[in-house]
Write a structure and sequence with these properties.
15 helices; globular; mainly alpha
């Protein structure tokens, strides 16, 4: 017998009854795989994209060449590592393997705690702001709290210090960091261009020039200025924002998603047609720290 469709508010009622302090992983899975799968994928892509506008981050990515010469694989690796952490759990074997991979890659470069903390803040704040503007409903306080707890736990496993205690603290940190650090950098612009070029390949070829302009229209003004992008005409920008908001209103009339959506099944993931192992994702720089160094980082007390 075919099951009845789930009521549109089914998952919100579920997250309402869960404790964000102790059940933040389950709440985060519900949001990413049932309530807002497409929105969160777009939002996290834009979250990572905006970090390139900090020259110390964007220029480093340009110097490695990975995000310019092999953009598709770097995109896939990032999505799959983050999904492994979320899907399997932060304390699971695959979840810890995914965190280890992140720490190995980041530990191979001289990345400041401030930059790491800023990147983490974009993953907390950008999805919430995207959903507030384009989602079929806003996030609840319970869900915002869960997202904060989730990324604070991930941040501790990554050895990030001085994390804010709540969502508002992360929002202030992100906004202030961007105000002080966003600036044009030639290498960062190349990384941004390569990423936008990749995004357009997810759509039919005739639409790609339009989709590039559409993506730039969605950027905050200070982010577009940092990359040296000319924003499209005001009418086009209004249309771009309105079309995403309309999508959200239409979704509010559909039943809730029963089957969980996973990024690994998306047509946008192209680098591993035969499957993958979490411990083999990403890059393996020659200066990569060894297991003992990584274990020390995972176990080190963090504020």
């Amino acid at each position: 017998m075919r099951p009845w469709p789930l009521h549109r508010d089914h998952w919100r009622r579920e997250t309402d009854r869960l404790d964000p302090a102790t059940e933040h992983e389950q709440i985060s899975r519900i949001l990413a795989m049932h309530e807002f799968p497409w929105d969160l994928q777009q939002a996290l892509s834009f979250a990572l994209f905006r970090t390139y506008a900090v020259p110390s981050i964007g220029n480093l990515l340009a110097r490695t060449g990975e995000f310019i010469e092999d953009t598709q694989k770097r995109h896939d690796d990032t999505v799959l590592v983050l999904e492994a952490v979320l899907d399997d759990g932060l304390e699971s074997k695959d979840g810890r393997a995914a965190v280890r991979r992140m720490n190995q890659m980041h530990g191979s470069y001289d990345i400041s705690n401030d930059d790491m903390l800023y990147v983490l803040s974009t993953f907390v704040v950008t999805p919430a702001r995207w959903i507030r503007r384009y989602g079929w409903r806003d996030l609840t306080e319970n869900e915002l709290s869960a997202a904060t707890h989730y990324y604070r736990r991930l941040g501790r496993l990554m050895g990030i210090k001085d994390m804010p205690e709540d969502f508002d603290g992360f929002a202030r940190l992100m906004d202030e960091y961007e105000a002080h650090h966003f600036a044009y950098d030639e290498g960062a612009r190349r990384v941004a261009d390569s990423t936008l070029d990749l995004f357009t390949t997810f759509y039919p070829r005739p639409l790609r020039p339009l989709l590039r302009a559409f993506s730039i229209a969605l950027l905050d003004d200070h982010l577009a200025r940092a990359f040296g992008y000319d924003k499209p005409p005001a009418w086009f920008s209004r249309l771009a924002h309105a079309s995403l908001a309309m999508r959200g209103r239409l979704l509010s009339r559909f039943p809730a998603r029963a089957k969980p959506w996973k990024a690994r099944t998306s047509h946008r993931i192209r680098s591993y047609p035969g499957g993958f192992m979490v411990e083999n994702l990403g890059t393996f720089p020659s200066s990569m720290p060894d297991d003992e160094q990584i274990d020390a980082r995972l176990q080190r007390p963090v504020a």
